[in-house]
Specification:
Low-confidence stretches of chain A: none
Radius of gyration of chain B: 35 Å
Shape of chain B: elongated
Number of helices of chain A: 8
Order of helices and strands of chain B: HHEEHEEHEEHEEEEHHEEHEEHEHHHH
Mean pLDDT of chain A: 90
CATH architecture of chain A: 3-Layer(aba) Sandwich
Order of helices and strands of chain A: EEEHEEHEHHHEHEHEEH
Structural class of chain A: alpha/beta
Distance between the termini of chain B: 34 Å
Helix content of chain A: 25-40%
Helix content of chain B: 40-55%
Strand order of the largest sheet of chain B: 3-4-12-6-11-7
Number of domains of chain A: 1
Strand order of the largest sheet of chain A: 6-7-8-3-9-10
Largest sheet of chain B: 6 strands, mixed, barrel
Largest sheet of chain A: 6 strands, mixed
Number of domains of chain B: 3
Mean pLDDT of chain B: 84
CATH class of chain A: Alpha Beta
Oligomer: heterodimer
């Protein structure tokens, strides 16, 4: 069943077509990577999927609702209720502790619950660092807090923008492990990246070039990767 | 945890963990609130402080008889009950009679009074020696003392004969201080002291018309009228030699009569008593009091045999002009024998100075408020610019525009609360310092001022946040994705 469907969407800025008649669909529970060089339209597509921008032409169906036709107030509601965002620059509120940053997401969504927030931090291995400020956390730790924040409200879709772009290899692997775990639990993941290694971890990679879908690559090894990952996790 | 608790946790964290930024905004609000509360305290305390200062310039209310009969002391005391006791700084009775010196037969206006009250209602009196403190002591006006060559501790025999309608038959001697009296409006006496040259032309004249209506007869004591007599030859005829004061013909006539019948010459020793009095002090006022003799009411009674009679009572009342008007209405309504009236010259200038001072303070307060607002607004604007990312992030996480608005307003008002509390207290200290240095007395705390300072600071902070909030709400959440 498709969770997200982009039908013939274009985004036009004056003369420039940032996206040119793109068609994409993502199924429930799928792990999809979006790749492409700079200027290929990745950011524009990310903004549209993340309900922060609307296409000039076309339909964007998220859970069957055409978000291209909604007001920006309604888009805020959809983003809050259905999407968990992870950013390249981590983006934490710098005067709030790790657990408070997670609770901010709960605060806008429904009710802050410190215990639940601490559990989410435990899931990303940061239970002991919960009461540290961002300045006291490493980049990898900050990104893990952001993952905890993105999944705290049980979103239908996790949208990650270059999630490992600012991380070293060790931390990149930790984040990818978390994604694999989320995928195993049935969360839909869309990861925008230009790192082939990150893209290779996904089930399917969509390559954008000049605002168009250049090609789609199915990861034939995905099943094997997941098994290996599970084995590593148990061992 | 409730949403409200999380909200408070976020805004307190924002203020406490970003101290250096917020300190600037907090300080500007606190300083604004301090100046505001300080100035408001002064604004409300100025009338009290200045009122006390003004009372150094003399009485501001007069009581006189309302009928033909002279006022009784008891009636004046009864009239005082219409004024709250703590508002009355002093109440001085005066009874004026003309008394002669037995040795040289010179006549002088003599006032029987209460010296303890004189010092309260006329604090500007300068006395060489001391105020009389025992019986048979007098205070001589400087001019009287110079005329008769008396000094402190001199003994003078004074004698009294009952007043006639005018003290006739005295001889006019050039160069010597002459006194006279005549009956003016309402059967109340008018007193004059003067000197003449060889041609009997008047060279100096002072008039005491305290018993007359101030707006009309009272004008006859003012220099514009007394100057008209200078150079005129005795006897003077009213409306030929000298024009009367408009609306005060009777008093003007009485002044003319008193001048024409004045004298320093021997008068036949009349029936009446005489007493030996010791000069306790010599009075220097720069005014008409220098030509009078002052003694206690008891001594005057001993000299004249009169009991309990006074011409006027001077009151020094510490009150606003509205309150004074209220007391006067009460006295004039309740007491049929006594008329109260304001010394307008004093009360009018008090009111004028006070209203000018208050409007100055008001203006400065308004300017300070505007400056505080600009300062807080600028700081909040800088805060918004600095926190664009954070605002974008909050919006990306699903914060609605109204959430962003509430958060910034909450921070602003929390700053207002802290700043108002801090500033309100600082302001009271500031007002206290100003008060002690300028007025020389401590200030009364207005208990309502602290809550008012806090509310005003919060309102100002909220108002200052409006523009910054507008900018915060306009921030695009997509900016957090661009990896800036």
């Amino acid at each position: 069943m498709s969770l997200l469907e982009l039908k013939n969407i274009s985004k036009i800025y004056g003369e420039l077509k940032a996206l040119d008649n793109v068609n994409i669909h993502v199924d429930q529970g799928e792990w999809v990577a979006i790749m492409g060089p700079s200027g290929s339209g990745k950011s524009t597509m990310m903004n549209i999927i993340g309900c922060m921008d609307k296409p000039t032409l076309g339909e964007v169906l998220l859970d069957g609702v055409d978000i291209a036709k909604e007001s920006s107030k309604k888009l805020t509601d959809i983003r809050r209720d259905k999407i968990g965002l992870i950013f390249q620059q981590f983006h934490m509120v710098n005067y709030l502790t790790a657990v408070e940053n997670v609770m901010v997401s709960q605060y806008y969504h429904s009710m802050p619950d410190e215990k639940e927030a601490l559990d989410a931090l435990g899931r990303v291995g940061l239970r002991e660092r919960a009461h540290h400020l961002p300045s006291q956390l490493s980049g990898g730790e900050q990104q893990r807090v952001c993952v905890a924040r993105a999944l705290i409200n049980h979103p239908e879709l996790i949208l990650a923008d270059e999630p490992t772009g600012n991380l070293d290899e060790a931390n990149e692997n930790i984040v990818l492990d978390l994604f694999a775990q989320l995928h195993a639990e049935g969360t839909t993941l869309i990861v925008v990246t230009h790192d082939p290694e990150v893209a290779d971890a996904a089930q399917r990679t969509i390559v954008l070039e000049h605002g168009k879908v250049a090609r789609e690559v199915i990861n034939e090894n995905f099943e094997a990767q997941q098994k290996e990952w599970l084995a590593r996790l148990k061992g | 945890m409730t949403k409200r608790k999380m909200f408070l946790r976020m805004i307190t964290a924002s203020l406490l963990r970003r101290r250096s930024r917020m300190l600037v905004a907090l300080l500007s609000i606190a300083i604004g609130a301090a100046i505001l509360s300080g100035l408001v305290t002064i604004y409300y305390d100025v009338p009290r402080q200045m009122g006390a200062q003004f009372r150094n310039y003399g009485a501001n209310m007069l009581l006189a008889s309302s009928g033909e009969e002279r006022m009784r002391m008891a009636a004046a005391q009864a009239a005082l009950e219409s004024i709250p006791e703590d508002k009355i700084l002093g109440a001085t009775p005066y009874r004026y009679v003309t008394v002669q010196m037995t040795r040289n037969q010179l006549s002088f206006v003599t006032a029987g009074t209460d010296f303890s009250q004189v010092q309260l209602t006329s604090p500007y009196f300068v006395v060489e020696g001391a105020y009389p403190s025992g019986s048979r002591q007098i205070l001589l006006g400087k001019e009287v003392a110079e005329t008769i060559g008396a000094k402190v501790n001199s003994v003078i025999e004074l004698s009294y004969r009952p007043a006639e309608t005018a003290s006739a038959g005295s001889e006019i001697i050039p160069g010597v201080l002459l006194t006279g009296s005549a009956v003016g409006f309402n059967n109340n006496p008018v007193y004059v002291t003067l000197r003449v040259d060889e041609d009997l032309r008047i060279t100096e004249l002072t008039v005491n018309a305290d018993t007359q209506t101030p707006e009309y007869g009272g004008q006859c004591a003012e220099p514009f009228f007394t100057q008209r007599f200078i150079g005129k030859q005795i006897p003077v005829t009213l409306n030929e030699d000298v024009d009367a004061v408009t609306g005060a013909t009777m008093t003007s006539q009485a002044v003319t009569d008193a001048i024409n019948h004045s004298g320093a010459a021997e008068t036949p020793a009349a029936a009446g008593s005489s007493l030996n009095m010791t000069v306790a002090g010599i009075l220097d006022t720069g005014g008409k009091e220098e030509s009078y003799i002052f003694m206690s009411q008891e001594d005057l009674t001993a000299l004249t045999g009169e009991q309990d009679q006074i011409d006027v009572m001077e009151l020094s009342v510490s009150a606003s002009s509205d309150e004074l008007a209220e007391y006067i209405d009460a006295i004039n309504g309740n007491q049929k024998d006594v008329t109260a009236r304001l010394v307008k010259r004093i009360t009018n200038s008090e009111t004028a100075v006070l209203s000018k001072l208050q409007s100055l303070v008001f203006l400065v307060t308004a300017v300070v408020l505007v400056l505080t607002m600009i300062c807080v607004s600028t700081t909040m604007m800088a805060v918004v610019t600095e926190r664009r990312k954070e605002i974008g992030l909050r919006k990306a996480l699903g914060a609605s525009d109204s959430s962003i608005r509430t958060e910034f307003l909450g921070e602003g008002m929390f700053l207002g609360l802290l700043g108002g509390l801090l500033g309100g207290l600082l302001g009271f200290g500031f007002a206290q310092i100003v008060s002690v240095n300028v007025f020389g007395s401590s200030i009364q705390l207005q208990p309502l001022l602290l809550p008012v300072a806090i509310i005003v600071s919060m309102a100002i902070a909220a108002l200052s946040c409006l523009l910054p909030i507008k900018r915060a709400v306009a921030i695009d959440p997509a900016l957090v994705l661009k990896g800036e």
